[in-house]
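Quiz preparation item.
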């Protein structure tokens, strides 16, 4: 009799464990990434080599940092998204290139100018959303169009400047580590990504800032009753998003070397949509979630596109297949959320 009770308790614990695992969107996101890498190795031999994995993570970094900005926005509001991140990223690229103009001595000035520009555009978003009551999607989309128009008017198609050698080293170069006779090359941007990941987890989970953001995202009315200045918090969240996006533009300049006005405007890589998909796959919503999940989501969307590109699919086919896969995932996530 006692043996049967022990067996039943063991079975209950096993079922409870698997239930928690398969209801945890972060775990699912990383399982999807793992399956995608295995599929990549099946179809493309050498996909799982260390150097190629590092290359995939390096490409994922640029979506992942935009997803960092998106993470803070989404956690602080149930229906909040920032569609201006791509345009603000382009500001960082063009402004950084113009100030740097290939000179390492100008890096500090470029960084400060890019952060200030990102802060200004992000704050405009925040003021419109928090104090004027404009829908986040409408406000950020409208500002993105304004920024794009300003950039096209100011540059008139002529792009000035370029990245400095130090910035290119950060964007393109590797940290070389010898381990058991093997030379391992780790992109510097991957190390930067790891540091930002740890900092974001610390801020969101271990500080009062994270507690306030989650409180505002979960229940604005309750947060107001507790004395939280909700409008200011919302404004500063978008200011932060703008700064991160512009900073990302500066790093992207180091990767590409020369400025390109289409980098963040959706003509080549649609950073706003990819970052939104990344945070959704990562299980982030109003008041809950972690940037750890957005990292997995970023790696997933970039890896999927990388596999399809290597297999020879054209742009239209890649968009269609990626759209179908992501739609299935989003539907599955939505249905599971309703059933919890």
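Solution:
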């Amino acid at each position: 009799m006692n043996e049967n009770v022990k067996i039943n308790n063991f079975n209950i614990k096993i079922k409870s464990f698997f239930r928690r695992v398969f209801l945890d969107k972060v775990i699912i996101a990383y399982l999807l990434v793992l399956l995608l890498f295995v599929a990549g190795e099946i179809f493309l031999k050498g996909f799982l080599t260390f150097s190629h994995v590092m290359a995939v993570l390096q490409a994922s970094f640029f979506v992942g940092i935009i997803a960092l900005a998106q993470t803070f926005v989404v956690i602080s509001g149930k229906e909040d998204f920032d569609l201006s991140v791509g345009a603000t990223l382009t500001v960082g690229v063009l402004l950084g290139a113009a100030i740097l103009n290939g000179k390492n001595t100008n890096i500090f000035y470029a960084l400060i100018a890019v952060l200030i520009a990102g802060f200004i555009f992000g704050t405009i978003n925040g003021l419109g959303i928090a104090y004027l009551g404009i829908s986040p999607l409408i406000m950020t989309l409208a500002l993105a169009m304004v920024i794009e128009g300003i950039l096209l008017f100011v540059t008139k198609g002529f792009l000035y400047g370029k990245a400095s050698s130090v910035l290119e080293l950060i964007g393109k170069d590797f940290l070389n580590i010898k381990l058991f006779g093997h030379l391992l090359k780790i992109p510097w941007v991957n190390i930067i990504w790891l540091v930002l990941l740890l900092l974001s987890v610390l801020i969101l989970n271990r500080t009062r800032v994270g507690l306030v953001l989650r409180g505002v995202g979960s229940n604005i009315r309750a947060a107001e009753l507790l004395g939280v200045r909700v409008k200011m918090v919302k404004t500063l969240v978008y200011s932060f998003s703008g700064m991160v996006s512009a900073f990302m533009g500066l790093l992207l300049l180091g990767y590409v070397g020369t400025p390109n006005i289409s980098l963040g405007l959706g003509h080549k890589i649609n950073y706003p949509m990819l970052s939104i998909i990344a945070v959704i796959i990562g299980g982030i919503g109003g008041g809950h979630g972690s940037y750890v999940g957005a990292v997995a989501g970023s790696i997933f969307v970039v890896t999927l596109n990388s596999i399809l590109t290597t297999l020879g699919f054209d742009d239209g086919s890649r968009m269609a297949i990626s759209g179908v896969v992501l739609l299935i995932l989003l539907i599955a996530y939505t249905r599971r959320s309703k059933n919890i």
